[in-house]
């Protein structure tokens, strides 16, 4: 059965869960009293309760009162939580959304029941400012439920629907990728200090330059090399710098890092089973 918009239960209200809750309310997707937040240390949700969110430490109670269930605990906490909520899961009522790294739709259905519609979602930490790159996938959810999930996560950034077998790859490129691009910006700012700028100025310049580069691609819908060609002239300083970076493995090291992160991401849940 397809779900209509209804009460949303976010089980495990840490950074990602709270960022999504805030985004849903800010975008007027729903009101705070339409969202139930759970956390074992419920006192940490006192501020959210004052904002109008419903809070509880009882996951089963939250599931019983909701139609959309968002699983947002750590991988090692998942099996215990699934055992806790399984008795109150109704496959005709509930849409289950998981934002847990390395956990497949099949893993969740094995605990909750094969008929439960499950959508796997991978946001990144930019969800906290509404700029996440979120990938979604499912092996059994209907069109309307996929549209519901897309609309929900578009309140906190961009969404791409992919095949589930690519979700660990999406984790490496989009979730781990935040750290990779931040490290590149940090390195650029350090280079700026070495050529004469104060650290604070160098960081500001590197950050804005990186943001401008990303926006060029987003707004022009162009390829990176097309934009690179615009700033590389024969025997110029840009191509000299690019070639020096490539001689030292800039692109290959980034590619290798993404590949290794993808391998590691695929084992986060299985290692803890």
Describe this structure in words.
There is one protein chain. By secondary structure, this protein is an alpha/beta fold. The chain has two domains: 8-162, NAD(P)-binding Rossmann-like Domain (Rossmann fold, 3-Layer(aba) Sandwich), CATH 3.40.50; 170-265, ProC C-terminal domain-like fold (Orthogonal Bundle), CATH 1.10.3730. The protein has helices at residues 15-26, 46-50, 59-64, 75-85, 105-112, 143-154, 167-194, 199-220, 224-231, 237-247, 250-265; strands at 8-11, 35-38, 54-56, 68-71, 95-98, 117-122, 132-137, 157-161. Strands 3-2-1-4-5-6-7-8 form an eight-stranded mixed β-sheet, with helices on both faces. β1 (8-11), α1 and β2 form a beta-alpha-beta unit. α7 crosses α8 and α7 runs antiparallel to α11 (250-265). The model has no long low-confidence stretch (mean pLDDT 93).
Q: What is the number of helical segments per DSSP (H or I, 4+ residues)?
A: 11
Structural class: alpha/beta
The shape is elongated
Low-confidence stretches: none
* CATH H-level superfamily of the largest domain: NAD(P)-binding Rossmann-like Domain
Integer average pLDDT = 93
InterPro entries: 6-PGluconate_DH-like_C_sf, NAD(P)-bd_dom_sf, P5C_Rdtase_cat_N, P5CR_dimer, Pyrroline-COOH_reductase
Subcellular location: Cytoplasm
Main location: cytoplasm
GO molecular function: pyrroline-5-carboxylate reductase activity
Give me some keywords for this one.
about 270 residues, elongated, eight-stranded mixed β-sheet, Rossmann fold, ProC C-terminal domain-like fold, 8 strands, alpha/beta
């Amino acid at each position: 059965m397809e779900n209509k918009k209804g009460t949303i239960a976010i089980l495990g209200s840490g950074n990602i869960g709270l960022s999504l809750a805030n985004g849903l309310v800010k975008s007027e997707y729903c009101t705070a009293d339409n969202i139930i937040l759970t956390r074992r240390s419920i006192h940490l949700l006192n501020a959210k309760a004052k904002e109008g969110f419903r809070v509880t430490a009882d996951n089963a109670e939250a599931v019983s009162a909701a139609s959309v269930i968002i699983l947002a605990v750590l991988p090692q906490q998942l099996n215990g939580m699934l055992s806790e909520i399984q008795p109150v899961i109704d496959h005709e009522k509930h849409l289950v959304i998981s934002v847990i790294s390395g956990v497949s739709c099949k893993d969740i259905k094995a605990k909750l029941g094969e008929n439960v519609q499950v959508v796997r979602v991978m946001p990144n930490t930019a969800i906290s400012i509404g700029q996440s790159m979120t990938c979604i996938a499912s092996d059994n959810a209907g069109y309307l439920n996929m549209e519901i999930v897309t609309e929900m996560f578009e309140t906190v950034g961009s969404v791409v629907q992919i095949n589930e077998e690519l979700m660990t790859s999406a984790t490496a490129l989009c979730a781990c990728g935040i750290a990779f691009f931040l490290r590149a910006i940090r390195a650029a700012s350090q280079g700026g200090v070495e050529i004469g700028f104060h650290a604070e100025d160098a960081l500001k310049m590197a950050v804005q330059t990186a943001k401008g580069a990303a926006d060029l691609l987003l707004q022009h819908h162009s390829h990176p090399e097309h934009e690179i060609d615009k700033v590389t002239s024969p025997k110029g300083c840009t191509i000299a710098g690019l070639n020096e970076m490539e001689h030292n493995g800039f692109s290959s090291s980034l590619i290798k890092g993404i590949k290794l992160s993808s391998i590691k991401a695929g084992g986060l849940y299985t290692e803890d089973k």
